[in-house]
Amino acid sequence: MKLIRFAHTATLGLTLAGLTACSDDPAPALQPTLPTSGGDPVKEIVHNGNLPDCCDWKLTYGGGRLTSATGTSFINNVSLASTFNLGYGTQSVSMSGGGQSRYTIDLNGDKLISRITVDNSIYEFNYWNGALSNWRKITVDDGFAPIPQYTSSASLFYENGDLHHIDYTENENNPLNTVTLTFTPDERLNVNGLLPEGVTRQMGCLGFEHLYYAGLMGGPTTHLVKKVEVKHALYPERDYTLEFEYSADVAGRNVVLCNFRYEDQPASVTYKY
């Protein structure tokens, strides 16, 4: 009986010791879901031709996460290159680099970005069914008593998993000056989780496309985008349409080229994996 009792006590001690050891194990780092669905994650995006505001990207992955990104932006005819490094905690994401700017990233309960603070600008994001549903950008004065100076925003609407239209307001001080973008889906599935071209400003991620490709800004549209019709409420003479044609690699797996015309000039985007 003593032997049995001792064995039971020893077993209990080992069990408790095992539980104690397990409780000291570090929690795993956050593992966002990349926006791919049957295809490979894109590693390089290069724009060619006469294009609206856009960014080229070189994306680096490690352990199934996006770890760094080098972007070259072409905004308002100014070219600027920046490298960003992402760090993952158990419940948080940090971003460094990007020149002299300071970045703070807040996540919601689904581990998607709810807010980005960049110097004097605040970006706020909301989601519905895992997809971005609306965003707002507020730029404030950095004086003694900061006050809102400039606010832009958009609402995104979906149909059967595809982006249907975006209502975009460049400046909420002039709410009548809205832009509506209407999307027509392609037959090809968006297996690489690619963003629609030419509209990332209206999607709230111009210059932050790498955070979308990191799986931190909601899921992709189910299909690639075939056409975007852009209509201005106050300035119909500015309306235009983008129509896209895609090419895949030899295996038919990954999209490697997107051709379209902008302002009657040929343009294209190449993707590498």
Description:
With 273 residues, the protein is mainly beta. The protein has helices at 2-23, 209-213, and strands at residues 44-49, 54-62, 65-75, 78-88, 93-97, 103-107, 113-118, 121-128, 131-140, 148-159, 162-169, 178-189, 223-232, 240-243, 245-248, 255-262, 265-272. Strands 6-7-8-9-10-11-12-13-14 form a nine-stranded antiparallel sheet, with no helix packed on it. An eight-stranded antiparallel sheet has the order 5-4-3-2-1-17-16-15. The longest helix has 22 residues, at 2-23. The termini are far apart. The model is unreliable at 1-23 (pLDDT under 50).
Give helix and strand order, one letter per element, not per position: HEEEEEEEEEEEEHEEEEE
Shape: globular
Structure annotation, total helices:
2
Rg estimate, integer Å: 23 Å
Low-confidence stretches: 1-23
CATH class: Mainly Beta
Mean of the pLDDT scores? 88
- Summarize the amount of helix as a percent range: under 10%
Structural class: mainly beta
Strand percent estimate: over 45%
| Strand order in space, largest sheet | 6-7-8-9-10-11-12-13-14
- Biggest sheet overview: 9 strands, antiparallel
The CATH topology turns out to be Porin
* Strand element count: 17
Under the CATH scheme, the architecture is Beta Barrel
Measured between the Cα atoms of the first and last residue, the distance is: 67 Å
Overall domain count: 1
Give keywords.
273 residues; mainly beta; Porin; nine-stranded antiparallel sheet; eight-stranded antiparallel sheet; 2 helices; globular; disordered N terminus
Short description:
With 273 residues, the chain is mainly β. The protein is 10% helix and 50% strand.
